[in-house]
Design brief:
Layout lengths: L18 E5 L4 H12 L3 E6 L2 H13 L4 E5 L5 H15 L4 E4 L14 H29 L2 E6 L12 H21 L4 E8 L8 H5 L1 H9 L13 H8 L10 E4 L14
Parallel strand pairs: 1-2, 1-4, 2-3, 4-5, 5-6, 6-7
This protein binds nicotinamide-adenine-dinucleotide.
Length: 268
């Protein structure tokens, strides 16, 4: 191969000097993603409703010498979403990467599912993502560059009991991701979905601590275990970087093999 065509993969994952917004950054998967991006040189705007968690994340990241700002944001409010984007651009000049991690879950059987929980879950998990993507695209489109990663779930693709709003919202995230990837490919904006399996965070702590539900979820994976928030970081870095330059409209399942398992060894 001629020397100038040599494939040097070291630059593919390089995100140094980029800027990102990470929602849900006060704890759990969002916080791990924010720390991970900061550690590879991305200036990160941390967005969440939880002020204490935000402050703690900000102090941890800046304490290590990395760049971030914390912006208290209720993602259901358009003025908060707009302020988040404005403050990020004021601080870092632009938004290269948007990672929509924030989400909620409210479980109840479908036949008695409270309407207000349906409305709130769809508002946080789906509608807020669309509106934030639109706002960030106003910055990305003129620059003809950007990477958006929307967090869905194995629940976006498979049936689970007693959580109709969560499943509808997470399926919606997959559809929205394909729609935006289709519409914005011409602007060189890639839009992908990350679909975690059961991951130990505050959201899932009760099931994790219960021996029966813990084992039921672990044995359903090929790997016989839960995921950890930091295991979502590498996939996000991949999707955000030039390593994924030909990847868009994709659903990346990070689930220990849950989606593709028929029967696992641990269920025998
Ligand atoms: N933990 C899992 O097993 C799992 C599995 C699949 C998908 N997910 C998804 O991953 C994402 C992160 O989940 P997690 O487990 O880290 O949960 P988590 O509850 O620990 O974190 C979610 C964060 O989102 C924030 N948030 C909620 N509503 C908000 C709003 N209106 N405005 C701003 N921030 C808001 C919360 O304050 C919290 O910090 C969610 O979208 C979740 O659905 C989680």
């Amino acid at each position: 191969m001629p020397e100038d065509k040599f494939v040097d993969a070291r630059r593919l994952f390089n995100l140094a000097g980029k800027s990102a917004i990470v929602t849900g950054a006060a704890r759990g998967i969002g916080r791990a993603v924010a720390e991970g991006l900061a550690s590879v040189g991305v200036a990160v705007a941390l967005a969440d409703v939880l002020e204490d968690g935000l402050r703690d994340a900000e102090q941890t990241i800046t304490g290590r010498g990395y760049s971030c700002i914390a912006v208290r944001t209720d993602l259901c409010r358009q003025e908060d979403r707009a302020a988040l984007v404005e403050r990020t651009i004021a601080a870092f000049g632009r938004v290269d990467i948007l990672v929509n991690v924030a989400g909620i879950t409210r479980s109840a059987p479908s036949e008695v599912y409270p309407n207000e929980n349906w409305d709130l879950t769809l508002a946080v998990n789906l509608t807020a993502i669309f509106h934030l993507c639109k706002l960030v695209a106003q910055d990305m489109i003129p620059r003809r560059a950007g990477a958006i990663i929307n967090v869905s779930s194995i629940g976006g693709a498979l049936g689970f009991p007693n959580n109709p709003a969560y499943q509808a919202s997470k399926s919606g995230v997959l559809g929205l991701t394909r729609a935006l990837a289709t519409d914005w490919a011409k602007y060189h904006i890639r839009v992908n979905a990350l679909c975690p399996g059961y991951t130990h965070t505050d959201m899932t702590d009760a099931s994790f601590r219960d021996p029966h539900t813990n084992a039921a979820r672990a044995t359903r994976t090929m790997m016989n275990r839960w995921g950890q928030p930091e295991e979502m970081v590498g996939p996000v870095i991949f999707l955000a970087s030039d390593a994924a330059s030909y990847v868009t409209g994709e659903d990346l399942f990070v689930d220990g093999g849950w989606l593709n398992a028929g029967l696992t060894e641990w269920q025998l």
